[in-house]
Amino acid sequence: MLEPGAKKEPSSTRFPSVDVVSEQKQLLVGFRATPTREPEQPATEAVGTQGKRWGIRLPSLRDRATLGGAAREERAELRQREKQLRSEEAAKQAFFETPAGRARLAYQRGHRLFQYELKIDGLEPTIIPGPVGSPARVTTDPVDILNAVTVEGWKLATGKFIHSEVRNGVIGCYLFKRSQKRRLSMNNPWQAPGSTH
Question: What is the pLDDT of residues 18-44, one digit of tens each?
Answer without folding.
Answer: 555 556 666 555 555 555 555 555 555
